[in-house]
Write a structure and sequence with these properties.
single chain; mainly alpha; 2 domains; 12 helices; globular
Length: 245
């Protein structure tokens, strides 16, 4: 979906910006991937004895497929509420750098902290990727409303997919459910590569892909985070050095 020009009358109100964000969410190719992912989440919730109500609650409040899988699987395995919450929290730490990178794109000198709470909740991988692609085409004073619309659209779609997956669970083969979940990281990788325009972005992505198999041999349990932080740090250092030369 092509967004209106920055000086278009369509950006005159926050309600219009919210609506454009919701439309952008539903017209994105990532929306289809997210829909498939949450069909898998809904099916997994059904197979492990989670009620539909709890599955939907986790979609709305956690808003991250991998973290929901962790919650459902640890609860099914007999973990206490505290243990499950700790596991989900540790998983969610990976989203903190994404939130930190998106919020400066939303703020204006008049922005209040409370206005950033909902956008911060919506910044998972999908919203992060789409924010970097779309926000440069959105007037800064309308970006919070736009991201709220984007997140609401994607979250609503995910809730529908969760319900559908829960209902289809009896007829959805486990292998197909796993394959649907596997589509998510692959699509996000390709989307990140598409959005990598600067040399530092491309270098960080290439180094991360190269380091991951080596870091995985260490069996740390946080292989992706270690390889990502290491690759990003090296790429940042190389970029700073290159700019000084």
């Amino acid at each position: 979906m092509a967004l209106p020009a920055l000086d278009s009358p369509k950006w005159q109100s926050s309600v219009a910006a919210f609506a454009l964000g919701a439309k952008s969410a539903l017209s994105s190719i990532l929306a289809l991937v997210l829909f498939g992912t949450f069909i898998g989440v809904g099916a997994f919730a059904h197979d492990t004895g989670f009620t539909l109500g709890w599955a939907l609650t986790s979609t709305v409040l956690i808003w991250a497929g991998p973290a929901q899988i962790i919650l459902i699987s640890t609860s099914h395995a007999g973990a206490t509420l505290l243990e499950s919450a700790l596991a989900v929290t540790i998983s969610a730490i990976r989203l903190l750098p994404m939130v930190v990178s998106v919020l400066p794109m939303l703020r204006t000198p008049k922005t209040k902290i409370r206005q950033l709470i909902l956008p911060s909740h919506f910044v998972a991988v999908t919203v992060w990727v789409e924010s970097f692609r779309l926000l440069p085409h959105v007037p800064r004073e309308r970006r919070i409303a736009f991201v709220n619309g984007l997140g609401t659209g994607l979250a609503s779609l995910s809730c529908v997919a969760t319900i559908l997956g829960y209902g289809l669970a009896a007829n959805l083969p486990p292998l197909l459910a796993a394959a649907i979940l596997a589509l998510t990281p692959l699509t996000f990788l390709l989307s990140t590569a598409r959005n990598a325009h600067k040399l530092v972005d491309k270098l960080a992505l290439a180094l991360g892909l190269a380091l991951y198999p080596l870091v995985q041999l260490m069996h740390t349990g946080v292989d992706i985070m270690i390889s990502g932080v290491t690759a990003g740090t090296i790429a940042y250092g190389v970029n700073r050095l290159w700019r000084r030369v």
